[in-house]
Amino acid sequence: RKAVDKLSMTIKEIELLSLSQSVKDEAVAARDAAQREAKEAPKDPVMILPSQLTERQRILEEVFIPRNMPTMTIDEYMALNPHEFQAPPPPPPPPTGEDADHEEELNHDQEDEETYKKRAWDDWCDENPKGAGNRMGNV
């Protein structure tokens, strides 16, 4: 029984292999024929018509049209807007004497305020670790 089954399966396999080989041969033949036809087909010569020449000439002339020409010279612009071209005023001289002491005290006060603010923020961060916010009741 097993031998008969194997024999019938072998016969079917041989038929399938020969069929697949014939399909491959047909595909190769069709591809070769298409390549031969492509090689043998004469190519049409390129013809440049006068209408194409005029179109080309028109495009060429449009390329070199001067566009966005300046409406005034640099000198005219400087005359209209002199404040833009003046040097900035020199910085004020550094304070001396009592003014310097007063400014130094103000700077120290500002630094102290910033220090206290940073400390307060650091304390808050220590008390409220990241992710300890609203957990929707999942404590």
What does this structure look like?
The protein has a domain at 1-42. The chain has helices spanning 2-40, 50-63, 74-80, 98-127. It is built from four helices and no strands. The chain is mainly α.
Q: Which descriptors would you attach to this protein?
A:
4 helices, 139 residues, TAP46-like, protein phosphatase 2A binding, mainly alpha
Topology:
Layout: H1 2-40, H2 50-63, H3 74-80, H4 98-127
Biased composition (Pro residues): 87-96
InterPro entries: TAP46-like
GO molecular function: protein phosphatase 2A binding
Largest sheet: none
Q: State the shape.
A: flat
Point out poorly predicted stretches: none
The separation of the N and C termini measures 73 Å
Strand content: under 5%
- What is the chain-wise order of helices and strands? HHHH
- Overall mean pLDDT: 82
**Which structural class is indicated by helix and strand composition?**
mainly alpha
Which percent bin holds the helix content?
55-70%
Count of individual beta strands? 0
Cα-based radius of gyration, to the nearest Å? 46 Å
Describe what is shown at a glance.
The chain contains 4 helices and no strands.
